[in-house]
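call fold(seq) -> C-alpha cells
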Amino acid sequence: MSLTVRNKRDRSLDARLSVRPDAGAKAGWFAIDGAATTVPNERNVTLAPNATLTIKVAISVPPDAAPGNHVFLIRIAAEDNPDDDFADSPSVAFAIAPSAPPAKAHEQRFPWWAVTVAAALVIVFGGGTWWATRSRPAVNVVGELAATATQRLANAGFLVDQVEGEATGRPQTTVIKQDNNPDGKHVTLTIDPGHYERGAGVQPTCPTDTELLNGRCYSQCGPGNRTVGPNCALLGCPAGTYGTSYGNTGACLGSDPIPGWQCETIPHFIRCTPPQTARPSTAGDCANSMELNGALCYPKCRAGFTGSGSTCTVASQ
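ret:
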C-alpha cells in the first residue's frame, strides 16, 4: 500500500507515522518502509514546508491468523504535540484468505500473502485540509485561557477568531465555547469576559428627618448651627467680640483670638473659624434587590461576582 504525506504548512514538520490496527488486526502485522526494525509499524519523518513524501506499508500475517476481513488506518502526529496535532487516514480494509500459506522468513523484507488490499492514500498535513472526505479534528480548548488556547490551535495549523460571550463566573478570558468551521481551517472561540454590566445606579432613600449626602443619611444640625458637609459648626460670631461675622462662611474677624476656634493673623485682623463636629449618619436604604455601592444603589451581582459601580466582576480575579 502506498501512502503520500503532504505538509502544507509554511514551516518544517517533525512527525511520526504509525499503523493503528482495528477489527482483529494486530500491530505486529504491519511494517512501514524505512522504519526501525525494533518498531517496524512506526516511522519518524521530517517534512519541509509544502513537501511530500511517499512511503509503503507492508502487511505480513502469521500462519495462525484468523481468515476474514480486517481494518487498519495510518496516523501522522506532530512530534511536539502528538495528542492534539494529528491526522488519521480513512480506514483500509483487507482480507485474509482461508487457504493462504504462511510467509517464509527468507522471503522479501515485507512479505505479502493471502492479503487483498488496494489503497493509495494522501494525507495533507497542515493548512487545514486533511482529507478530501473528512474535516480535520480540532484541538478541544474549552476551559483554557484564551492566550493558551489560541497558541495551541495556531501550533496545530488553525486560524482562530475570538468573540466575547457572556460572563459565566469563570476566570476572565476563559474559553467557554468552541465552534469548528466545516472547512477544517477556522476555529471560533467564545471568550468569557469575566465581567458584566448590571445597570445604572439610583439614589438611596433616607428617613424624613435626615439628609442624604454621598449615599449616607445624616442627622440635621441643631439650632444655632450650620451644615458643613458631614459636619456641624456654630452659626455666627460670639457676642462681645470686635469681629465682623461672615455668616455661613463661618469665619469671624476681630482683634483677639476666640478660644477654641481655629485662628490666624491676617492684615489688620485675626480671623477665626469655629470648630466642627461630625453628624451621626447611617447608610442609605436600597431596595431588597439592590445593594449600596459608593453613593448609589445598584442591582445585586450574581453569585461569584463582586460589584464596583455599574460593573460586576468575577470574584476569583
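Residues 222-278 form one domain.
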